[in-house]
């Protein structure tokens, strides 16, 4: 099992064209911009066409090509057609970056106020849609073998350590984290050309916490967490390292346990895999 270490070797990001979902704001926008600045072509995807147009205008004359596609990942039945359309236009696409997400407050002490529709939408956006996107895009990436390709997932430090403010968000990220761990090992067992990468942000100052999404913060949400530019620099360094399968950022590495008990937990997973191999 490979884990990031302080001695990771800095290398150029190995993929040349990235489909960035959730590119209209926050982490997605910042990382997509960073990629273009480093000569990586980007296809920016999001629901808001005006924000996609803004991204293309700002970065379209940079060091790499920029294309955009308006799409709502919660429209599950449209995902296969979307994947086909993207690869028809961009057959050289070698990295799909799944970054969209939403976070909502949930308080079980007042069950009469629990909105199950909101919970389902959160799980749909953060987990179920990712499974549909993975199923749709993975065959296209596999067909490019032996060319290296990748699926990159943005999860969260809250996949490792839940907080009581947004337990359903934490659960959705934990589910995705477990799926990624298993998926990565499945790909390794067949020596796949598709690398499975997970980025673990801590709290980051983005519109995820804005009042329009989470009024409980009462105007203080945007100040929560690390500055977006600092996150982007550290995440990009991790993605450009030689051991980039797992990219924990800032507090996730230490306070939230990645460099401690999470390594031990993943080590136990590997032991269980070996035990199961011997029993079959």
Automatic annotation (TrEMBL):
Keywords: NADP, Oxidoreductase
Family: Belongs to the short-chain dehydrogenases/reductases (SDR) family.
Ranges annotated as spanning the membrane: none
Protein name: NAD(P)-binding protein
InterPro entries: NAD(P)-bd_dom_sf, Sc_DH/Rdtase_CS, SDR_fam
Protein source organism: Hortaea werneckii (Black yeast)
GO molecular function: oxidoreductase activity
Annotated signal sequence range: none
SUPFAM superfamilies (UniProt xref): NAD(P)-binding Rossmann-fold domains
